[in-house]
Specification:
Layout lengths: L1 H17 L5 H14 L5 H20 L4 H8 L3 H21 L4 H12 L3 H11 L3 H28 L4 H11 L3 H11 L1 H15 L2 H11 L12 H14 L4 H24 L3 H7 L1 H25 L2
Helix pairs in contact: 2-14, 3-13, 3-14, 4-11, 5-6, 5-16, 6-7, 6-8, 6-16, 7-8, 7-12, 8-10, 8-15, 8-16, 9-10, 9-11, 9-16, 10-11, 10-14
Length: 309
């Protein structure tokens, strides 16, 4: 059985790389079906590869973005990013207290919703000294909603007749994880992808101040802070693309790696979400996460439709 799952696992990844028709939602759905029907043959490899492959894909995408144009496009979502990060953290902590959820679990779910999903949880978890169960529940509930977002956000964007700029801004604020943000942006259009990526990565930098605040709240000044260095490399790639005349074949290759890398990442993420992890989540953490998600999605949608062109 394990040998069969290994062959299917490799075959799906090869198919995703070779066939451009396999989009982000299809890859994520394939990963979910794989996880629910077969045993993931390499869970540790799957987890590490999805993390680093996404970072490589994002950096490669930077070689197709103009720094000046990107900053102009992304500036409209920056102010709301600040307000939403602080607001979601405060609301999440209060909901956790009201629902009688484990303090650390509620804090991790709030962090994942406010900033950048699993990356924020992975960074804040060691600071609060979260145990394996607290990490698993927090990551599980975020990944469930993150998967749903990739399927429903692009149709909602078309339903509300959102522009590329509007959808990219909304997706970056309202979708938890960077992987689904770039996946949704790619589905909606090139400009939406670039705007969504830039705003989401700017949002991800909030991991650093959040970690320092968390150290103060949980009274642990010895905790190690995980800094998302790949974001700075992404900015460097944009600077190079803006001011250095790069050969067309190089830019084309970087874009191909970025797009296929993102799609493969979503398959890997889907393949890591097992029925066991879903059952482990429980009702209360899921209720907290859903309420936070609805609040940030609806409020950001209203702001974007009224302020972003």
């Amino acid at each position: 059985m394990k040998t069969a799952s290994q062959i299917i696992y490799i075959a799906i990844i090869v198919a995703i790389i070779l066939f451009q028709q396999i989009s982000a939602p299809i890859a994520l759905l394939a990963g979910l079906i794989f996880a629910f029907t077969l045993e993931n043959p390499w869970p540790k490899f799957n987890k590490k590869t999805s993390k680093y492959l996404l970072q490589v894909a994002v950096v490669c995408l930077g070689f197709n973005m103009n720094l000046q144009q990107s900053l102009k496009s992304g500036s409209e979502g920056m102010l709301f990013t600040v307000v939403s990060v602080v607001g979601v953290m405060l609301l999440g902590v209060m909901l956790g207290y009201w629902l009688h959820i484990n303090r650390k679990t509620a804090y991790l779910i709030s962090s994942g919703t406010a900033i950048c999903g699993g990356s924020a949880i992975a960074a804040v978890g060691p600071v609060v000294k979260a145990d394996e169960n607290e990490m698993a529940v927090s990551l599980g509930v975020i990944f469930i909603l993150n998967s749903i977002a990739l399927f429903i956000f692009p149709p909602l964007g078309h339903m509300f007749e959102m522009t590329q700029q509007q959808f990219g801004t909304w997706a970056a604020i309202a979708i938890h994880d960077t992987s689904s943000v770039v996946g949704a942006g790619e589905m909606y259009g090139e400009q939406a992808l670039q705007v969504a990526t830039l705003i989401k990565l700017t949002r991800a930098l909030w991991i650093i101040p959040l970690a320092f605040v968390t150290m103060f709240i949980f009274r642990d000044r010895t905790a190690k802070i995980s800094i998302p260095w790949f974001i700075f490399i992404f900015v460097l790639a944009m600077i190079v693309n803006t001011y250095v005349p790069l050969p067309e074949w190089f830019v084309t290759a970087m874009v191909w790696i970025a797009r296929r890398g993102m799609v493969v990442t979503l398959f890997l993420i889907g393949a890591s979400l097992s029925l066991k992890s879903i059952r482990q989540v429980g009702v209360k953490p899921l209720v907290q996460a859903v309420i936070l998600w609805v609040v940030i999605s609806v409020s950001s949608l209203a702001v974007v439709l009224n302020t972003v062109q």
